[in-house]
């Protein structure tokens, strides 16, 4: 049995690194291409470790697999992003310490992360405003308002 050494990865770290590489890619990657991208990111991994991780992520429904020569190429599914977001929300919790945890999270963001979050918040606000605008222009009178009768009132 292998003990926990200084070089041992945290659970889920390899899967997260693989998903990050695949999200950054312009299209599906083969295990060799994924390994190469991971090496550029500072991960020294054997081909078999990368291939096994890709197969496991596919088995979890987080990657889609397409034929590529004699092997396969992999790309993340939308379920992968949703699952990671759910995991983040779960770690954040819903207790009184939520603001403290969020403040530490925000303090550790890079400038790129901050810009991305601000853009996402702005887009979400824009979508909410557009939805509210369209629901205000629906047919019929709003609740509590009388329907116009067409006859002038005196």
TrEMBL record:
Entry keyword Transcription regulation: yes
Region (Disordered): 126-154
GO BP annotations listed: negative regulation of DNA-templated transcription
Low complexity compositional bias, start-end: 133-154
Xref: InterPro entries: BlaI_family (IPR005650), WH-like_DNA-bd_sf (IPR036388), WH_DNA-bd_sf (IPR036390)
Ranges in coiled-coil conformation: none
Residues annotated as transmembrane: none
Keywords: DNA-binding, Transcription, Transcription regulation
UniProt keyword Transcription present: yes
Molecular functions per Gene Ontology: DNA binding
Family to which the UniProt record says this protein belongs: Belongs to the BlaI transcriptional regulatory family.
Protein name according to UniProt: BlaI/MecI/CopY family transcriptional regulator
Species of origin: Candidatus Frankia alpina
């Amino acid at each position: 049995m292998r003990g926990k050494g200084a070089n041992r990865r945290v659970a889920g770290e390899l899967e997260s690194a693989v998903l990050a590489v695949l999200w950054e890619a312009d299209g599906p990657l083969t295990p060799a291409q994924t390994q190469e991208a991971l090496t550029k990111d500072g991960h020294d991994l054997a081909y078999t470790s990368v291939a096994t991780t890709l197969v496991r992520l596919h088995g979890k429904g987080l990657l889609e697999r397409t034929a590529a020569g004699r092997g396969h190429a992999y790309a993340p599914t939308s379920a992968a992003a949703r699952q990671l977001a759910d995991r983040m929300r779960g770690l954040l919790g819903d207790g009184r310490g939520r603001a403290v945890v969020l403040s530490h999270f925000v303090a550790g963001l890079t400038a790129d992360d901050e810009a991305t979050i601000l853009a996402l918040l702005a887009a979400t606000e824009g979508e909410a405003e557009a939805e509210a605008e369209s629901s205000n222009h629906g047919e019929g009178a709003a609740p509590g308002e009388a329907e116009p009768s067409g006859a002038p009132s005196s």
